[in-house]
Queue: 4 jobs
Job 1
Amino acid sequence: MPKKKEIEDVQLILSGSGCKTTCTVLFVLAKFCEVVLIIGAICCGVCGIILGLGSNSININEAIVAIQKEEGFPSEILEIPEVADFLALERGRQIATILGAVAVGAILLVLASILARYVYRFFKNLAHGRTPFTMENVDLLQKIGGWTFVLVGTSIVSAIIIELMAGVKNVNLNISISTIAMGFAALVLAVVFRHGVELEQKAKK
């Protein structure tokens, strides 16, 4: 558990003008990311609807054959195992895979925008608050950590499902170590901040 001296050092750092300026920049960037992610999710949703409505007239293999006739088409792409497996699928499954990928993309963008929202609120509190040690900040850090793991877990599971739908024989398990580390860091900071809140409450009594 963090000691009182360590908590005081954290408070001194976070209350400095340089740190407040940094937090201001970070909460503006987080807000920008939130808006961009929401717009991206809406675009994915619209694309999914358009693809769904026009799926009866889409034939991916015929489209690729037509594109191959264009000069400069990189035919080596078709030799990639994952691409070859996908093109070997029946037309209906190809469309379902594409629609599934679009739907997953929209879901991940929504989850990322929720995470960005909590990050925005946290750094905004640090930039404008008198003390960083509040239960609201503890709650935000816990939500940042929790939603980070939700985002990582959802991306892993959805990637496996999409690869299986696409007929990929060797499914790859891609895990973002840096993202997981960010989630753990947020939860550790939540413990530090909670202890800081407790020390401040004791000091006021």
Job 2
Amino acid sequence: MANTSDIKKGLCIIYNNDTFKVIEFQHVKPGKGPAFVRTKLKSLTNGKVLDNTFSAGHKIDEVRVETRKYQYLYKEGDTTYHFMNNTDYSQISLEKDFLDSPDLMKEGEILTVVVRAEDELPLSVEMPASVILEVTHTEPGIKGNTATNATKPATVETGASVNVPLFINEGDKIKIETDKGTYQERVKE
């Protein structure tokens, strides 16, 4: 049994007879009245996201989880993703709802799968903080159109669309922040 001071990003809890993962949280101490924790929770069974506020000191049921390294193998159809455990080579398949940003996953990439300790049930897939992907399509930047932070859409090798600065061209490798799906920098190799 934990309380609101233990809430952190990625924590898995039981709330309203469902298992949720904390996506965002903010401890709030108003000038008047008691402190509270504002959270954004994602259901690990159906993928729905809900906002919830816990009063300070509220008891929460924490789910004991373990993390394992899995390699992303391939996507089947539009919703099923296949992974292989790096230690025993067993394979699992997960639905799109379990994944935070499936459009940024590249085949062969090593990811962390969170499983419930009691029954080995996969709960979610955690992406690395950033990924490096190659730009496969983007319009050329127009010279002289860089007065303010101008961006243009670009398609990367996984099919995701990301807004990038005008100087990025097809074939460039870029670093993308997986939490927000935003461009960070161009990678020179």
Job 3
Amino acid sequence: MLPKKELNIYPKNEENIRAILEFYFGKYDFPEDNATEYLMSFTSLTLNQTEFIARKLSESWESVFKEFLHEKTTIQNLMKYGIDGFTKSANEISPKPKNPRRIKTLEFMEFVKSTEIDFEYLEKNN
């Protein structure tokens, strides 16, 4: 569901990660809480994939996360929801079906499916 790694044209480095975080989350004034280092540790995610996750999280903040997180969170925490949604199965997020983190992560993934114009392209080409 993520963009293909082969379509990545920019290096994944701290400067580019910070630029993505500022672009998508700067208006919310969330604390970073080591988000740059956290994202750099995901060596399997390319910069374009990281940017896609950040974009979808930013787009979904109002409708999916704002009330649930009581309007307060960190960028790192929010990125965890996104990365879990794109890289883990529901059972890997939590084996308990009623776990709030699992429920919200799955709700986020439904938001992505319903709002991504090229979702079918992403799904077929990954």
Job 4
Amino acid sequence: MGTRTDLKLPKIFRTNWFRKDENGKFIWPGYGQNMRVLKWIVDRVRGKAGAVESPFGLMPTYEEMTWAGIDFSKDKYLNIMNISRDGALAEAAEIKTYFDGFGSHLPPELEAQRKALEERAGKAPQVWSMAG
């Protein structure tokens, strides 16, 4: 893929359904609610949904999600969307360890993306939040 411009590459999205609250309970309301995020992804791919930039990339705002039929407060949503600098840096380090296993076979573009993540995370506040 590298520098080719004739390819239509897929969009890549990442989720974390497993964040827990201070009592150790999952914050996201459950597997059956994942369709709400998937709807945002489809709308985003089709150019019908917005996003805000974070150290991890583009993320949906509370207003961009569909909440009909569920009581999930904006405060709760903002809490699960927070990103800690230390957590992001730790993830970049874990990815490096994984990439190291590929040796010279790792495409340089992948390491460049990992380094970009590490740089963005390093410049982020201690806890990045959509709330500001």
